[in-house]
Amino acid sequence: MVLLFCMDMKADSIPGTKLRNESFCILHTTRQLQCIQTQTVVAKRTTQKQQQHSTEMAAFTTSQTHSYYPLMRFFISFLLVFASSFGSVLSLQVMSDSGNVLPANQTFRPGKEMWKLKRVNAFLKKINKPAVKTIQSPDGDIIDCVLSHLQPAFDHPELKGQKPLDPPERPRGNETTETETKNYQVWTDSGESCPEGSVPIRRTTEKDVLRASYMRRFGRKLRRHVRRDSTGNGHEHAVLFVNGEQYYGAKANINVWAPRVTDQYEFSLSQIWVISGSFGKDLNTIEAGWQVSPELYGDNYPRFFTYWTTDAYRTTGCYNLLCSGFVQTNNKIAIGSAISPRSSYNGRQFDIGLMIWKDPKHGNWWLEFGSGLLVGYWPAFLFSHLRSHASMIQFGGEIVNFRSSGYHTSTQMGSGHFAEEGYGKASYFRNLQVVDWDNNLLPLTNLHLLADHSNCYDIRQGRSNAWGTYFYYGGPGRNVRCP
């Protein structure tokens, strides 16, 4: 009953606010309180029976006191119990106004919660644009079909009033020029599609934002580095990279798995990085691949994602379409939606083709997904160094290791198996290529391998006629050699 009392308390009955009397009338005490308040005795005004009246009044008062004594004792006891246990009650699981359970050690503060919810709702209003059609995905996602010129990118001052650009010339040597539509994503299993002139956008919900460890960083990566000190913030990698030249794009086929992520605030991803800058505060990156992130998406499905930053993940950039940046042009691919099908251990293997390249005419960086489907582009003006070219290309996997249990995470990279297990067991990248200054796709030269902790996640590279340059990578995380 005490918990129910706390759940139904008004905001101003929390410590530090004024207590209202009516808040105590919840546990079926209203009628009793009314009796106490209305039992008054009117003294007779005759002087002749004043003494008799005083005697009767005393007897009446004594009678009433004895009849109400159990009630008053119960009520006073209740108040004492409530006052002594109030703090512990608030430490129980209490529902916030948003419907989420507050952590056990967090005090419920209505003012703070209301302020947070106002910020969340303002963000959702900004990022979720009006839809001409809404599609319910079988996996629970809501896909909004938004008119192309109303998508979040066009909130940017340099894009206001504009429309998406026409497709650019693809790099020479690109063999995936077909435009056949395949079901790469779960939401298309519904049989619904977005009409021409609109783009499918995964709706961001209040729960999505409230899951974030820091709301101000929702939709952004934690800061990371891309050199050998990359584990400074818990980020670990197994990657192949090239540097030493000017790069204008990259291409690869990425094996798709659903690795286990053991901590809500960790993630596991496989992607292509297009990088430029001094690897300090001016680092520019463009990224695309698949990712499992319970914090961002609320589940453990691998999802197609994009990312960009122009200041080393500090204040610029975001995942997918969660800020004004990436301009989507395709009405068949929803960025942030779950990829289907997925590979299985010792079973069927599936991969997705990705290509990022710089349009020679306008200088924007375009993204191709699957069999020739142009997803959209990152406008050149978003960047500083990448306005010109990239100085490094990376391919591979990344996880976050928060050591929340005091030892190395068991979050998996790739398939969760080491590279030595090979096809059908370890995850792979194949057909790795880069784009040169003349818009040609070329094989890699001067390549390097990097595994931050090879006992936890490793990488092995190879080459064949069928797969060109390829590599296997990944691992289980914590094991006897990775404590």
UniProtKB/TrEMBL annotation:
Residues 156-182 are annotated as: Disordered. The keyword Glycoprotein does not apply. Residues 156-181 have a biased composition (Basic and acidic residues). The chain crosses the membrane at residues 74-95. Keywords: Membrane, Transmembrane, Transmembrane helix. Gene3D superfamilies: Outer-capsid protein sigma 3, large lobe (3.90.1320.10). Residues 229-483 form the Neprosin PEP catalytic domain. InterPro entries: Glutamic_endopeptidase, Neprosin, Neprosin_propep. This is Neprosin PEP catalytic domain-containing protein. It comes from Manihot esculenta (Cassava). The lineage of its organism: Eukaryota, Viridiplantae, Streptophyta, Embryophyta, Tracheophyta.
